[in-house]
Amino acid sequence: MPPLATRWRRLLARVIDYVLIIEIPFNVLLWIYERIHPAAGYVWSSLLGVIFWLVYIGYDGYMLTTRGRTFGKQWMKIRVGMLDDGSLPAGRPGWLRAATYGLPGVLADAGWALWAINVLPALFPSAVWVLWLINVLWLLWDKPYAQALHDKVAKTVVVSAQ
What we know:
The protein is built from six helices and two strands, in the order αααβαααβ. It is mainly alpha-helical and 162 residues long. A two-stranded antiparallel ribbon has the order 1-2. α2 packs antiparallel against α4 (92-116) and α4 runs antiparallel to α5.
């Protein structure tokens, strides 16, 4: 198996993907919608966040199961492989990894929408973001493969593709 990807390359790959798939389209659509409906507010932006997190899960799952890497990972010269043999995480493992990573984003944004209409306390979406943070930070102390929790669930590892 190739050497493990560095934490910084992994972080930059996620940032690239997040900006391309969520942040830019989300803010453009939100800006357009707020010009049409200026009083749309927090519920609309939270629901739009849910949609974009679902799109991110679809993007991540598709790219991992077909190529083993997203655009961000490609630019950072890293890829995702199966822990046991480094092969492509085709099928269930790639989708499981993507869902485990993105589902907290869906739940948190849905929670903020429900908070805005007084259905849920703000503690719920905040707690979900804490769980997401634990997931991604897990690789900092995991030995020997530096796996985040979404890697552990899918039995994958991120390696250098150089």
